[in-house]
Write a structure and sequence with these properties.
GO terms for molecular function: ABC-type ferric iron transporter activity; ATP binding; ATP hydrolysis activity. It comes from candidate division Kazan bacterium. InterPro entries: AAA+_ATPase, ABC_transporter-like_ATP-bd, ABC_transporter-like_CS, ABC_transpr_FbpC, ABC_transpr_MalK/UgpC-like, NA-bd_OB-fold, P-loop_NTPase. Pfam families: ABC_tran (PF00005). Keywords: ATP-binding, Cell membrane, Membrane, Nucleotide-binding, Translocase, Transport. By secondary structure, the chain is of the alpha+beta class. The chain folds into 2 domains: 222 residues, P-loop containing nucleotide triphosphate hydrolases (Rossmann fold), CATH 3.40.50.300; 129 residues, Nucleic acid-binding proteins (OB fold (Dihydrolipoamide Acetyltransferase, E2P)), CATH 2.40.50. The strands form 4 sheets. The chain has a 6-stranded mixed β-sheet with strand order 6-7-8-3-9-10, with helices on both faces. A 5-stranded antiparallel β-sheet has the order 13-12-11-14-20. Strand 7, helix 5 and strand 8 form a beta-alpha-beta unit. Helix 2 packs parallel to helix 4. The longest helix has 18 residues. The mean pLDDT is 89.
Length: 382
């Protein structure tokens, strides 16, 4: 008999709509109190997977287990699941209080118990002042909070959130993310959060499952996913295409394995001096003498602009062509040949004229992630 320590477990879930495979062999587990994010672009299968877990759709094959018991045949109301949909289906003719009360009325809770729960969740989500307002008089952010309250007021085993912050402005999204994190620490809710936004997934999750074309592309903690994306597409997706990319090929020479950079600079560097963590990986792959083409990715935070400290990484000269003020940091754009590098700098850089100036850029390759240019896979991935 197979024993699992997961509260929720999915085993080999498959789903097709006609000729299109929407979910392909999805397997993952979630322990009580954990938050899992399903991260992926539109059409990757996130919503379908949530609906299957909730019992609103049926998988073609595979099993769903809760507390070790298969629940494939249980109807939605017996699964102990609460779900917040992207569509925010509030009862517009009802007040906020009545909307939040609807699942409690269905559960036939005593009036005084129901009232206490409604007011507690309203206070938590800062919508106490809206309780008597009709739902059709709410702003987008207020509607989102009411939808969250209606789901969370229900005593469920599992909470499913389908892009609950979509179509909201950045300020409201940030505020709701903060409140969502409080739900985990204060209420200990077990939840799955579907989102196309890497920032939300990284901020809210204990674990992330990256979905792409109906498959789990990568699974891990936010740090594992962010620090070493499994392929170049995911690396770009996680950073909003803000990666700095250097192109080159792996070559051999007498004093060790080297990388011959071809763009945006032409230079030969020894791997042991600039990216020592890749020496063994390259040797094990046996590509040192194959001229394998690679892409070296460096995040904007892993680069610096001309400072009093000696550069311990790859130093190149580039022309600053613009910047964005991000408050505590300045995002600087520096051009070298046809490539624009992105570097975060302190606000001190604004104390001098920088536009059009040539500056030395230091790229920290010890934190770089290197990919096979042909396959897009991270070097060392098995």
């Amino acid at each position: 008999m197979r024993v699992s320590n997961y509260f929720l477990e999915l085993r080999n879930i498959k789903k097709r709509y006609g000729d299109k495979t929407v979910l392909d062999n999805i397997s993952l587990g979630l322990r009580r109190g954990e938050t899992l994010s399903l991260l992926g672009p539109p059409g990757s299968g996130k919503t379908t997977l949530l609906k299957i877990i909730a019992g609103l759709e049926r998988q073609d094959s595979g099993d769903i287990l809760m507390d070790g018991k298969v629940i494939n045949d249980l109807p939605p109301y017996q699964r102990g699941v609460a779900m917040v949909f992207e569509t925010l289906a509030l009862y517009t003719h009802m007040t906020v209080y009545e909307n939040i009360a609807s699942p409690l009325i269905a559960a036939k809770l005593p009036k005084e118990v129901m009232d206490k729960k409604i007011r507690e969740i309203a206070k938590f989500l800062k919508i106490e002042h809206l309780l008597e307002r009709k739902a059709d008089k709410l702003s987008g952010g207020e509607r989102q909070r009411v939808a969250l309250a209606r789901a969370l007021v229900k005593d469920a085993e599992l909470y499913l959130f389908d892009e609950p912050f979509i179509n909201l402005d950045a300020k409201i999204r940030s505020a709701l993310r903060t409140e969502f994190k409080k739900l985990k620490t204060t209420l200990g809710k077990t939840s799955i959060f579907a989102t196309p936004d890497p920032i939300e997934a990284l901020a809210l999750s204990d674990y992330i499952a990256v979905l792409y074309n109906g498959r789990i592309l990568q699974y891990g903690t936010p740090i594992e996913i962010y620090d070493k994306p499994i392929n170049l597409w995911l690396a770009r997706y996680l950073t909003g295409n803000m990666l700095n990319e250097l192109y080159g090929r792996v070559v051999s020479q007498e004093n060790g394995v080297a990388i011959e950079l071809t763009s945006p600079v032409k230079r030969k560097i020894l791997v042991k001096d600039y990216a020592p963590n890749y020496v063994d990986i390259i040797k094990e792959l046996g590509v040192a003498g194959t001229q394998q083409e690679i892409v070296i990715t460096i995040k904007p935070s892993q680069s610096t602009i001309e400072s009093s400290q000696e550069c311990s990484g790859l130093e190149i000269e580039a022309e600053i062509i613009g910047y964005e003020n991000h408050g505590s940091e300045i995002l600087v754009f520096a051009r070298i040949n046809d490539t624009v590098l992105k570097i975060y700098s302190s606000r001190d850089i604004l104390n001098r004229d920088i536009i059009g100036a040539k500056n030395k850029i230091c790229l920290d390759l010890t934190k770089a992630v290197i990919y096979d240019k042909r396959t897009g896979r991270v070097l060392g991935d098995t």
